[in-house]
UniProtKB/TrEMBL annotation:
InterPro entries, alphabetized: Chorismate_II_sf (IPR036263), CM_dom_sf (IPR036979), CM_II_prokaryot (IPR002701)
Protein's name according to its UniProt entry: chorismate mutase
Organism: Xanthobacter flavus
Signal peptide: none
Annotated EC: 5.4.99.5
Record-annotated Chorismate mutase domain positions: 13-106
Length: 295
């Protein structure tokens, strides 16, 4: 038991508390947590005014850099018997809902790769107050985000190394939606909502995290050799593109690598580079090898 969770007039050496006393302790803690959540919402009220004065409010109040940082710190300080999955999901609901009360938004999700994992991811990361709008296909999601004020779109990040439809080409144009985050913020092998998901929104230049950069590449002369030439540090999804020997690539580059390293390797393997466009960026993956707390 931590000091803050102890009754004000007790120490660890006191006689054991009765069930009624322990329950009244739980009631005291629940009331304090609720009070703190209400205080948090008052801060958000003032934060909305500050963002408005600074002109930093945009279509969406979602700030992926800030959220990735908060989730990393949460995981690092977590101790005790409460499972990390539970702590993470509670904070995801708190943060996503407070974002929603700043500026209402919906989450559009592409269910074409399988409904259950995508729905689990959306609910785990955004809770039940934020509206969930299902789509059958990535392009429907991107169109809905493009036509909204500040909605978010969820697209499977790497369902497989190949895709039938190069949906990411719809993110190429200036002003088109961009990838702004990758979920879960904190990865682990047994994550309860572990489907890797890209979050797309209107471009958020000032608030974007630039650790992992994501590019759309159009290539001619695509071949198995070109595929093998792509450096191992790059995460790549390949789809057929227009011309017979054309391919559209979605390439994610970890910190410290440039897209030239990939285009150079492709050119050496005989492929022609038709176009390169940055289609977003997100925080580097924070991987927890062993969850900090397990029952
Ligand atoms: C509060 C903010 O807005 C959003 C809500 C957050 C929260 O409730 O903690 C954190 C980041 C943002 O997505 C902020 O920009 O700091």
């Amino acid at each position: 038991m931590t000091q803050s969770a102890m009754p004000q007039n007790a120490t660890q050496n006191d006689a054991p508390l009765s069930l009624a006393d322990l329950r009244s302790e739980i009631d005291r803690i629940d009331a304090a947590m609720h009070q703190l959540l209400m205080e948090r919402s008052e801060i958000i009220d003032r934060l909305v005014q500050v963002k408005h004065t600074q002109g930093t409010e945009g279509g969406s109040a979602f700030r992926p850099a800030r959220e990735a940082d908060m989730m990393r710190r949460l995981v690092e300080r977590h101790r005790g018997l409460l499972p990390l999955d539970t702590v993470e999901s509670i904070w995801r609901v708190i943060i996503a809902t407070f974002t929603y009360v700043q500026a209402p938004y919906s989450v559009h999700a592409d269910l074409s790769g399988g409904e259950a994992p995508m729905r689990d991811s959306a609910r785990f990361h955004f809770g039940f107050t934020v509206p969930f709008l299902p789509h059958m296909g990535a392009r429907g999601v991107i169109d809905a985000v493009a036509g909204s004020r500040g909605d978010l779109g969820l697209l499977a990040a790497a369902p497989s190394p190949s895709a039938a439809d190069p949906w990411w080409t719809a993110l190429e144009a200036e002003g088109a939606p961009k990838i702004i985050a990758r979920l879960p913020f904190v990865e682990r092998d047994d994550h309860p909502a572990g489907l890797p998901v890209f979050v797309v929104s209107h471009p958020i230049a000032d608030a974007a995290v630039r650790e992992v950069r994501v590019y759309s590449l159009r290539v001619t002369g695509w071949s198995a050799a070109a595929g093998r030439a792509i450096p191992a540090f790059a995460e790549v999804v390949v789809a057929p593109d227009e011309a017979l020997d054309g391919a559209a690539l979605l390439v994610s580059l970890p910190p410290g690598h440039a897209v030239d390293e990939v285009t150079g390797a492709l050119a050496e393997a005989g492929a022609g580079i038709r176009a390169v466009a940055e289609v977003g960026s997100h925080a580097a993956t924070h991987k927890v090898v062993r969850p900090a707390a397990r029952p």
